[in-house]
Every structure is written in C-alpha cells, then in structure tokens.
Known about the structure:
By secondary structure, the protein is of the alpha+beta class. The protein is 49% helix and 15% strand. The strands form eight sheets. The protein has a four-stranded antiparallel β-sheet with strand order 9-16-15-10, covered by helices on one side. Helix 9 (178-192) packs across helix 14.
Amino acid sequence: TEIMYGGPPQPKQSPIVVLKDGTEREHGHKAQIANIKAAKAVADIVRTTLGPRSMLKMLMDPMGGIVLTNDGNAILREIDVNHPAAKSMIEISRAQDEEVGDGTTSVVVLAGEFMQVAEPFITREIHPTVVVGAYFQALELALNYAKDMSKDIDITNMDEISKIVKSCIGTKFVSKWGDQICNLAVKAVKQVTNEKDGRKEIDIKRYAKTEKIPGGTLDQCKVLDGVVFNKDVTHPEMRRFIENPRVILLDCTLEYKKGESQTNMELTKEEDFKKALQQEEEEVKALCEQILRFKPDIVITEKGVSDLAQHFFLQKNVSVIRRIRKTDNNRIARCSGATVVNRPEELQESDVGTECGEFSIEKIGDEYFTFMTKCKNPKACSIVLRGGTKDVLNEIERNLIDAMNVARNIILNPKLVPGGGALEMALSAKLGEHANTIQGTSQWPFKAMAAAFEVIPRTLAQNSGSDVVRVLTELRAKHAKPEGLNFGIDGKTGKIADVTELNIWDPLAVKLQTIKTALEVSCMLLRIDDIVSGIKKKREQPKSQMGQQAMAAGGAGMEEAAETFGDARDGQINSSNYSFHFKTILQKK
C-alpha cells in the first residue's frame, strides 16, 4: 500500500497563518461583488442630482458647516467612506472636475452602471479578464462613434458659446438666472484667454477669481475689467480714489531688516542708542526713496510695511496696501502691466504698471474692498458675486466655475455632441448592433455595456417624474432609425424631444472624458480579486493604565507611545497624549 500511494500517511498539517490577527481579507468573487456593491452605493448617492429637475443634497461637515449643492464632486468630497472601491469612485469625480470641470455626476453614475452590469458575469464565473477585454473593445468604438456624431462650432461667435453654456447651466441651481450666469462665464473666459505663439492659454483657476460678498441680489453680479480684493490702505489719510495710477508691485517687506542670528550691541554712551535708532530710520528711508524715485501713486506689497515707511509714502501722497495674497498680486500684474519685484533697488521704469484706469476703495457691508478697474488690456479678472446668504453664494460660485470650464472646453476644442441622453442612447444602439458581429463569450459583456449607456437617459426620465419604461422604449425605437440620432430626454418635461431643436448640447471633450474615466475605473475595480484591510488601530486605553503599561513593559511601552504619537499626528487622538509620549521618552533616557 505504501508503494502504491507514495509512502506512509502524512500527519494532518495545521493551517499556515500568513497575515496578522485582526487583518480582514476578501478574496475572489467575494472581493469583486463587494467592489460592485460599493460602486453602486456611491452612484446611488448622486443619481438624483442629474438633470434640470435634480434634487439638492444638504451635507454637514465635522465643523458644523452646511454644504447645500447638487454638484457631484462637491457632494462626494464631503462624504467620508471606508471602502477602497468607494474611494476610487469619489476620486474619479474629482479627476473629472479638475480635467474638464463638468460631468462630475454623469461619470459616477455611468461607472456605477458599468460595474453593476458586470455582476451577472462574475457570479456565473466568467473570468474578469474576458469582461474587461470586452469593455476596452467597446470603449474604443464608443469614442470613435462620439467623435463621428460631433459637430464643429464657430468660436468667434459668442452667442453660440453662450447657448451651449446655458444648456449646461440648465441642470444647476442658478438655471433661473441662466442668461446672466452665461454672460458672466463667457466674458470672464474671453478676458483671461491669452494667446502665445499660436497657442491658447486659459487659466481660470489662477486668473479668474470670484469675490463673494454677502448681501445684495444676484442681478448685481458682474465681471470687472480689472481686479478686486478685500484690503484697505494702511493709513487713513492716504488717497482712496486715483485715476490712471502708476502701480508698483513688491513681494518684499518695507521694514528694517533684523539680523538672522542673535546680535548683541554694546552701548558705551547714551548717544549710541539714538545712533542705532537713527541708522534703522535711514535704512527704511533709503528703501522708500528707491521706490519713490519712480513717482508711483500706489505701492502694493505681499509683506509688511512699517509705520515709518508709511510716513514717508504719505508725505509723497502715495497709497500703500500691504499683506496682499500672492495670487491677487499676480492678477494685478496681469491687469496693470506691472512686474512683481523682489528687491526695491532693482526697480526699473518698465516694472511700473500704467494700464490701470481707476483705483478706488469702497465700503461694502462692514468691509473695505479695493477695485482696480478700467484696465486697457486685462488678462485677468475678478467676478463679484452678490447673494442673500453664504450657502447661496457658494453654490453660485460652484455653478459659475462649471460654466467657465464649459466655455473654456469649447474654445480649446470647438466640437459639440447632442445632450439630454441622446449621445448615450445613440452609443447604446450602435454598440448593440456591433455586439452581434462579435464571436465567443465576450459578446455578452459587450452587449451589457451597450445597455449600461442607457442609464443616463433613464436617470433623466426618473428625475423628471415620467413613465421610465414607456419613455425608454419609445427612445430605443427612435434610435433604431438613422434619422433618430438626435432624440433624447427633455429633462424639464421628461418627454422625448429632438435635443438639437431645444439647443441642448454638450462639449465633446466633457463626454469623451466621462466615458474614458468611467470605463477605465470600472475595468480597474473589476480586476481586483483580493482586498486586504490593514490592522485596525489599537483602542485607546485610559491614560493612567497606558502609563503603567509603558513603565512595566520597558521597550514595549516606548513602542506603544510611538504609535500613540503617530495617531496624534493624524489628528485622531487628543493632544494630551503628546505629553505622555515625551514623558515616556524622558523616563527611558
């Protein structure tokens, strides 16, 4: 028997434990199904915020502040999640916002649906690689179909751009004031557009700043042909209104420089102290004279200005603004034609800004605001937003930034595709047809993905309260014919309509980014077959007990203290544990 079966019977081996106690592990199908459920849960959070009849979400942050919005990225960034797949879903919303600035809700809803339609294949033990292969095949075709469906637009015609921006604003909180927000967005983008060597640069984040001032009405919002910032002059007697000012911008202090290391002065006579003070005075005076030789009207610096320097500037009737933000300083430089200088002794006439038409300081509410307007050729701007409350202002700002991003996308890539779910429905029909030509198992995931594109028109129909099944059946019938490609859902009524007649268009750049991001993250999550959660942090013990353990355990106590310090650094343990950590170190020494 031994020869037959290869030796004597082996004793039973105990299972080998590789991972530490407390480590959680999900393996195989279980991990994939958990990822699919997590992705679907995140998509369900923002599903109701899609379309013109969308609902708002009210979120409370840990500090007690309230966020009131229907912007997908703004909602998801406030939500704290534990599951790694859910974190990836939130990350794609942020990536979409940074890349194209719109479509943050669509990308999450679409990714959630791509994951959900893969669930039957995973449960039937079709290998994820087959599913992912079919998905990537479908992605390539979908992108080509979308490009074929796009139409070009004349970017010199600002009315055309305004129409597209308005269709994107239609789903937002500010849709009631659509025309005004569109005009603000288009004017701001046009102003910050900078052409260099035939290349367009549109940096909204850096050069189009929104200044939110509570009070007033939304009709008072405007784009300035210059900048505004929340500062006042340093001395009450300085001029608060100057026409055609000469502007000097600095990013250095206008104060006496103290020694970097400790300096001891030995005074032998009582006059020595006066001499030391006089020397300081002369140093500041020389600094001011280097600036005043260019006859400026306004001096703006990012750092401090001493009382003595203010006195010298006031004598020459120069207005001074100090401690301004670096970003504001860069915007002023773009508007006034000045150059930000680091050392006053290096100032030249070419560094002085002369393109600003009017400098004025106004008191709005309780605060002073400095306006530098009527600039000749401003390449930066400030957008003044007025509204009833801070929550309203924050939401207007988010909507305006989305509108500006849409305008930027159109100028950089002037191609449009039909909106209102028409593009997604057309892609679903085209991919469904193509699926019949594919051989083998991958045909089914391909078909499932084609059906997943219907989630956008379906969600629009659900959010507008219409009969979803009937509307989608009619829409499928329309898209089965070649002339029905432009039919989508009118988000306001929930009925089928030709979206080109309703002027509902989306930038091609936004749609391509949405499809690519949603599909790539779905494929990445489906290929995960193992989730290992790290060791959970040890629970906090009472301080006295921890101290006793540290004293008794010697080196182990030191280790415990070090871990406590790491937790405190992460902001998860109160500051009293710092003192315990340092006491323990001292005791060891």
